[in-house]
Structures are given as structure tokens and as C-alpha cells.
Amino acid sequence: MDYKVHIDPGKEDCYFQYANPGATFYVSFQVVRGGDGMAGFAVRHPSGQIVHPYQWKANSEYQDQNSMGGYYSVCIDNQFSRFAAKLVNIYITVVRYDMWDKYAKELDALNMNMENFTTTIVGVERNINEMLQYQHHSRGREAWDFNLLQDNNSYVVRWSIIQIIVVMATTAVQVYFVRKLFDVKSGGGSGRSRI
């Protein structure tokens, strides 16, 4: 599961994922945009123990190869940032390799020797899951880079417009004063007229 979540400033959001006994639990997060680009990330084991303590980072990950089963708590903390909201990409997956073993036992019960095939399929599935994790990291990095480019572009455009306005205002003021400098006053003299 791949989520993009918005964390308000000074807030903490927690998400829960069930993992079967013996399954592999994997979670990673990456701050895509907002503030200093970092947030706190922690994982709590179904037993209640914090297995990945809070660390203020741009990205982090946690993996439990052999889960005892239960609900994992994944929390993202933005309490250190009082003014900037964060957009965070979360990737959570639970893989049950024990189901492959159950499948192999069923095949043995049918007197079919598929051990080589099953081992190959398990290896392929593990490789696919590793590729999915890599793709998730790549997508997160791409989203982070894209948002950085957008922020830089808006910054450059904003300051360019401000500079254009300043140059135009300066030009108008200079033209006004140069015209005033050469402005010749015409009017009647103040001399006395003789009769």
C-alpha cells in the first residue's frame, strides 16, 4: 500500500497495519514537501514496544522479517514544525511467505514434486517485492524532486515579478523628475506696468 498523507503543523498521525504471524512487515516513509523536509517516524510492535524510535529525518524504513502477528502502529510526527505542514509518502507491505510453505505441503499431499518450482516462485516473489520497494523509493524521490523544482520555480517567478515592478516604478519616478526638471513655467511677469 502506498499513501500520500498530509500532516498538519504540530500534529502526529498514526496508522495501523495487521501482520499475520510469520509474515514479513515492511514500512518506509519519505517527506515529499513542506518545511525543512523532515519529520519524526516511529514504529510500534504489536507487543507495544517501540521497535523504531522517533528520529527527525527526511526518510526512513523498518522491516520485521518474522512477525509474531498483530497490529503494527506507524506514526509520523510533525510536532517540531509549528508552522509548516508536510506531505509524506508512506509505503506499507506485509508479505506472507508461510503461505508458500502451506502450498508446497498441499502439493506434496497430492504426490506432486513441485519443490523446485515452489522455491523458484518464492525467490521470484521476493525479488518482485524488493523491486516494488525500490520503485516506491524511486517514486518518492521523484515526487520530492518534482516538488522541489516547483517550489524553486515559484520562488524565481515571484522574485522576477517583484524586480520587474521595482524597475518599472523606478523608471516612472525618473521620468517624472526629469520632466519636472525641464518643465518651463510660463506666465505673466510680476513687473509693474506703466501707464
Automatic annotation (TrEMBL):
GO cellular component, one term: membrane
Membrane topology summary: Single-pass membrane protein; Single-pass type I membrane protein
Annotated signal peptide: none
Compartments, record wording: Endomembrane system; Membrane
Keywords attached to this entry: Developmental protein, Membrane, Signal, Transmembrane, Transmembrane helix
Domain of life: Eukaryota
Domain GOLD: 12-94
Regions crossing the membrane: 156-178
Similarity remark: Belongs to the EMP24/GP25L family.
The protein, known as: GOLD domain-containing protein
Taxonomic placement: Eukaryota, Metazoa, Ecdysozoa, Arthropoda, Hexapoda
